Structure formats: C-alpha cells, structure tokens
Predict the 3D structure of the following.
Amino acid sequence: MRSALRSLVAGAVIGAFAFAGPAAAQQKVKIGFISTFSGPQGVMGQYMKESVELAIEHLGGKVGGLPVEMFYGDDQVKPDVGVQVAEEMLKKNQVDFVSGIIWSNVMLAVEPVVTGAGHIMVGTNAGASPLAGAQCNKLYFSTSWNNDQTPEAMGKFLTDSGVNDIYVIAPNYQAGKDMVAGLKRYYKGNIVEENYTKLGQQDYQAEITQLRSKNPKAVFAFLPGGMGIQFLKQYDQAGLRGQLPLYTVYTVDEISIPAVKDAAVGVYETRYWSPDLKNPANQRFVADYKKKYGKLPVFYGAQSYDGIMLIDSAIKAVKGNLKDVDGMVKAMEKADFASLRGPFQYNVNHHPIQNFYLLKSVKTPSGDIEMHIQKTIFEKHKDAYYQECKMK
Amino acid sequence: MASLLFEQLLNGLQFGVMLFLMAAGLTLVFGIMNLINLAHGSLYMVGAYLTVAATQWTGSYVAGVALGLAGTLVVGMLVEVIALRPLYERDHLDQVLVTFGLILFFNELVAIIWGRAALFASGPSWLSGHIDLFTGSRYPMYRAAIIVVGIVVALALWYVVTRTRLGMLIRAGATNRTMVAALGVNIRLLYTVVFGFGAALAGLAGLLAGPIYNVQPGMGELILIQVFVVIVIGGIGSVRGALVGAVIIGIVDTLGRAFLKPLLGTLISPPAAESAGPALASMLIYLLMALVLTFRPQGLFPARGG
C-alpha cells in the first residue's frame, strides 16, 4: 500500500515535470547577456544594457513573439569570470541564447562554452580575429565587426587623402598591435614612429613631447576607454589639437565626449555606425534612447540592440520553436532585420558585411559636441579573415 | 636632443610631483600610525569628485578647490574614527582587508552618486595657457602649476613636521606612542588629525589630477601602485624619502618611455628593440624597486626612529 502510494506520488511528480517542462520552455525565451557592469569599464556595459532594454521595449516586451526573460551577467573584464557566468546561465537559468561581451579575450573563452552546449552565441562587441577566421563556428554570430576593420577604414581614408608621415600611438597589447596591423593593411604612406604605451597608462605628456619632436603631419591613435579620455585632454592641453590632425579609432565616442568636451572637437574617427546615420530604425532608436536615458547612445549599445533584433528575427522564422537551432541559424544568416547601421548582410563567417564611415566630432550650434558622418569610406566591407573560415 | 632631454626631464619632474602629493599622505599615515591604508587612492578619488561637484555648484574653481579639500579632510577623519580606530592594535593583514573593503565601498558609492561614466573636469581658465620654453617648445601652464604646488606642499610639510609643536608631537607619537600618551597628549585626536591631513593631501593630488586624468570610479587604484613603489624606494614612513622617491620614479618612468626604445635600437636590432622597448619601459620602475629592496631594503631615506 505504502509503496503503491509512493510510486503514485513519484509518477505524478515526474508527469508534472514532463508535461510542464517543454510547455514552459515554449512559452518564454531566456536570453543571457554578459558584459562588464562593474569597475571603471562598467559604463560600457551600462550603455549596452540600456540599449537591450530599449530593443525589448520596441518589440513590445517580447522577443520573437515570445515573452522574454533576461539574465544579465558581469564578466569583470576577466575571461574566467565570463566562463563562470556563462555556465551559470546555461545550466541554472537554462537560457536559450547568450549575447553581449565587450572584450576579445573574454569572448574567446566564453564562445566555446556556449556553442559547445549547442546554444547560439550573439557577440555584440568583441571582434577577435580567430572567430572570424580559423575558429569560426556556425552557432556564433557577431553584430559588431572584426577588430581590424575599423582601422582598415582609417588607413584607406588616410591613403586616399594623401596624409603622409603619421605618428602611431596604441597600447602595448594584442588589440593595440591588431589595430596598427589593420591600419597598415590599407595605409600606404610613411609612418614616422609606432609608439606602444603601457596598457592603462594615465599620463601621455612624455609621448606628446616625443611625437612633437618627430614633426609628424598627423597622429593616429587607438586608446580606448579611460586612456583615450586622458590622451584627448592632454593632447588638447599641449596645444596640439587643431595644430596636428588627430585620427583615432575607438577613442572618441559618446561615452568619452561628455568627459572631455571641447578637447574632442575636430578629432576624426572611423566607424560603421553613428547616431546621425539616416535610416528609420536608427532615427527611432536615437530619439527614444535620448528620451529614455537623457543622453546619446553609443555604438556598443547600437550593436547590442541589433543583437536582440537578430535573435527576434530568428525566433520568428522558426515560429517560436526554440528547439530548432538549425532553423534559427539559417534565419540569422539572412540577417532579416532592420539594423541600426542600415545595409547589413552576413558573410560566410557570420560576421557582418557593412559600410564604414569617416566621423568627425563637431560642436553643434546649440553647443553640444557630437560625432557627425563626413563620408563613406568602405561600402560592403568584408573582414580580412573570412576565407580562413571553414564552417562545418 | 638636449632640449628634448630637458623637456622630458620637466615632464618627469611633474609626474614625480604628482606622485609625491599622493605618497606624502600615505607615508605619513604609515610612519606615524603604523597603518597600511590601501584606501588612500579612494581619498584621491573623493577629492577629485568633491572638487568637480563643488566647482559646478559654486561656479568658482577656487571655491571648488577649498570645498573639495575641506570635504576630503572631513571624509578622511570620519573614516579614521569609524573604520580604522579599532585596527591600530591589529596586525597589518587586518588593516589591508579593511582598507581594501573601503576601496570597494567608495568606488560603488561614487558610482551610485555620480554614475560610472567619467566626469568632465577642467582647470581654471587662467591656467589653460602655455609657457614658452627656451627650447622653443610650449609647456602647459597647468602642469607647471602642479610643479609649483608640489614644491610648496613639500616645504610646508617640512616646516610643519620639523618646526612646529604639532610636528614635534607627530614625531614623538611615531617614536613612542605610549610615552606620548602618558605625558598627557590626546594621541587619539592626534591620529585623527594626522589621518585627516593625509586624506587632504590625497584629495589635493586627486583634484589636481582631475583636469589631466580621468575622473571615474576606481581612478585612485590606477596611480596607487606607483605610489607604493615610491614609498618603498623612498623608505616607508619618510616624507623626505617620498619626495626623492617620487621624483626618481617620475623621471625614470618618463625617460624610459621616451628614450629606452631608441637606446635599445642602437644595441640590438631595431625590430627586437621595437618589441622589447615598450615592455621594458613599463617594467623599469619595478626593476628599480627590486634593486632598492635588494641593496637597501629600508629604502633610500628610512624614517628616523621608525
């Protein structure tokens, strides 16, 4: 009698789980979003999260027609922490997709964990070259770029406009060397000197004195985050801004401009996106972002917004059947969504084929400092690694 | 070449002065109170933030600086009374744990109040110009002002510590705390004053750093490691050592960044120098510290009686 009762209860419990399980999973999509939310770099994660929330709001609180549950994880700029967060999302929270990630080294650690578990990973910033080339994966999609592309555009622009004798400054780490390599792929002029500074360096006065003594015609800098803010301030204080043209990548953006104000005016950047890009999706995004958060969005956010839209398009294509991973991969390859950057196609390595523009930070009549598009440098630009990608 | 060297020496001196302002407070607190304060960088950050906020609020740079300094002094004293007092009798590991906790506390507090994005901080307009150097180059007035402030602070510290009654008590307290207390001096109050004073020095460094560096949560930790190198080289607890150590570090670091790569290029092949130069330049001050620790573990100017 007792054993019969026990089996009955057990059967009921198992039955309840067996029936409730798939039904619940069908009703809702779970997305894990990993970025950096703490420490000095936490501000980038904050812009990304705000953009993700705006994307979900634009989709009426649903992604792919399903109610969405978001899980945000802080990687603290550490690959091991990123892996830990991703594993927790996959095992404990049972997420269907993982998105986000700013840093290439974190991405290289996290991507195998997610795709290895059979889930789709949508990278919304990190542009590590191995993932565009030899280590590409059919479950990995990027809504950003390959690291080399942005400096390639700058190199092309400098060559086309006949700028010669440039001084190059970048931090002494992998991405710094990659950026300079990307620049050189298209820059055919003379480089006076390449100066690799300490990662996280605060004071650039010694470098500024050094570069002035070399009499370059222009300066190319890749100094992301706080390094860029410091460099821009010090370049301005040294009286070089306006005297010696400054061409940068990932140095002047909507995060650094409020911190340096006039010191950014007149500095050039190359980028695939800008708040003043004229297309309906972007105009709506920028206007609503400004209204909701009281500031301009930044490209980190635009990519993250696109990531949600990409996932949305994939789930819609398989009519909410989240088990159909192959179907969703096929749908994503079509990039059937209105990207904030306008024209957007996927290359065979699941990295975007996109335009790159020359941007200049200008002071508007109302006194604000904004990045404005000056011209198109590349149309439908492919990264340099896609031929190495043998996707299975 | 000579003019370039002069300019780089000036840059090194200025960087050294910046480090000295930070190191002076840290080394005073350690020398007198025997307290390892990892949160010194947080007080640097508090100084920068309070000055930015006060400058915006009052619309005047001078008033902003005054309020920022006073504010950091008060914050420092509060930290001493609330968090550090129970720690004097404990060993250094406990102090490290608590002051590390304070770093996390202050970084999050600042992020909650002002947000995580870097704040805009500018110096006064009357310091925005340049000085024409005899080398034909221009030097930012603001950086020249930092050098002047550093020299004034060094002189003032020397005067207070060696020529005033307060300085006498400070030195006595550092040598024998129990005896000073037995002679009827309120040693607890003295410690609070010294800590507040050290905090204000950190705040001064922070507010001076605002217009050239990044005013952001966690800004203090970026400079703190170099400051620790300075006080290890100079001799822990010695203000004189902090001054000499800071100037040495400032100049060695600057000259290393500027000249090491071309110098190496004459010795080894240029491509090898290209990769070894920057790596070696960023290690230089730590190599120097290792050398000092090997041959003179007490530092170049050990505190007397410490």
The first strand of chain A starts at residue 29 and ends at 35. Chain A touches chain B at residues 39-40, 42-43, 46, 172, 194-198, 200, 202-203, 205-207, 209-210, 212-213, 226, 229-230, 233-234, 237-239, 255-256, 258-261 (CB under 8 Å). Residues 15-25 of chain A have pLDDT under 50 and may be disordered.
